[in-house]
Write a structure and sequence with these properties.
This protein is about 25% helix and about 20% strand. It contains eleven helices and 14 strands. Strands 3, 4, 5, 8, 9, 13 and 14 form a seven-stranded mixed beta sheet that branches. It has a three-stranded parallel beta sheet with strand order 10-11-12, with helices on both faces. Strands 1-2 form a two-stranded antiparallel sheet. It folds into two domains: about 210 residues, Alpha-Beta Complex (Quinone Oxidoreductase, Chain A, domain 1), CATH 3.90.180.10; about 120 residues, Rossmann fold (3-Layer(aba) Sandwich), CATH 3.40.50.720.
Amino acid sequence: MKAVHYEGAFKVSVKEVELLKIQHLDDLIIKVTTAAICGSDLHMYQCRTVAEEGSVFGHENIGIVAEIGPGVTLLKQGDRIVLPFNVADSRYRNWEEGGTAFCTGVNPGFAGGAYGYVTMGPYQGGQAQFLRVPFADFNVLKLPPVKEHEGDFALLADIFPIGWHGLTLAGFQLRDTVVVFGAGPVGLMEAYNGIFRGVSKAFAMDTVPERLKAAQKIGCVPIDFKKSVDAAGYQAVESSGRKEQPNIILDQLIMAMRATGGLGIPGLYVPADPGALYEKSKKGQILISFSKLFEKNRQLRDLIIAGKAKPSFVVSHNINIDDAPEAYEKLDQRIDGYTKVLIHPNGLF
């Protein structure tokens, strides 16, 4: 089968790899119809993590059940499903307390597992024609069988529920004012969730024209903050644009917040960053926990089905798998309008 193959810093290729097989009774194999390229994949692509060469990325996946293990009871061949990117087994304390993102049973020595992401367990990513899904009855969300809303449903794997979660972390209440620092796909989902949850006003801050235009289209007030900082998360830089300052966004969030306001920080601060300028940053000493990310994905799915939400407005390009290396390069450089890319490993769905 074809898969997007990590070759080292700033290089991926499409290669033939071994076809995946059922390994456990509760596994299934899906034929991948869509797998997104995420900004988190770019962190590995840029060699800002300890990802190993030969890795297959892709934690935002949607597909059709192709093969099923004998222990799977709630699914059948031909079911259309989306996979929240966290892998969990539904058997341990963190799961019982609602912390499915921190399952201790799927990745020994680390709290949490995910598809195709560094240090998150032995689970190949979905930027490939097929994908193995462990603990299948628990780790999938069934979708309607018709070929509608593919791009919208794909975003249920990660950024749409993260948008909801970020607002929840901030203690959002009806008619609050929301300011989003960084209007990439995740930031736009923060603003979008705020708008249909009843925000009074939403501001979106970024430097990329396409992102600011997308924010304006959904009703945000766009703010170009080139004179302040560029990017959000651990790769933020100071206003000169020459020096990384990973904590600057956190500082500016605190300064922008009103007294008794709230912060929601789903931006990625990695536990180890070998490419960082500062020794503390290399050790991951700015680390923000994610908590539970997918408590609302069923409700968000139903909003899509009902025509109340269409998160795929953030998608800029739909591509075949052979075009993935070029898409990675352009997405990394933020050129030619590349903001959010969906790969269709088995052809356009």
